[in-house]
Amino acid sequence: LIVADEIANGILGSLVAITATCACVHPPEAPLIGAVGAILALLVNDWIARLKLDDPVGAVGVHGAAAAWGVLAVGLFADGALPGIEVASGLFRGGGVHLLGVQLLL
Questions:
Q1: Which of 30, 32, 51, 96 is deepest in the core (most CB within 10 A)?
Q2: Based on the number of CB atoms within 10 Å of its own CB, is 53 exposed (0-12), middle (13-18) or buried (19 or more)?
């Protein structure tokens, strides 16, 4: 069954997730980060609905869960060698856990 609001929230979740990382990751990583953001947004929105909490537009999943994943994705995927970027590399780029730890504080 195709539900328009779930499709829209999935798309928005993917866009919100990639926003934090757009300047510091490589293009092939963007679909992965966006897909995880979309899945998280939909799962959290489903959880919120099951708890019978009032969130008619799914903002908690989209702007809460997907955004939190996007911030953490910086600590995993960031590449400090990209031009114009002055950030340490993330865990998956050999930068260790420092940047991920900083992102966890946020």
A1: 30
A2: exposed
Residue with tokens 């002055």: 86
pTM flag (> 0.85):
yes
Q: Where are the alpha helices (DSSP H) in the chain?
A: 4-19, 30-50, 59, 66-77, 98-105
Give 15-60 pLDDT, tens digit per residue.
999 999 999 999 999 999 999 999 999 999 999 999 999 999 999 9
The single-letter code of the amino acid at 56 is P
Q: What would the two tokens of residue 67 be?
A: 């955004």
Number of domains in the chain: 1
- Per DSSP, the three-state class of 81 is coil
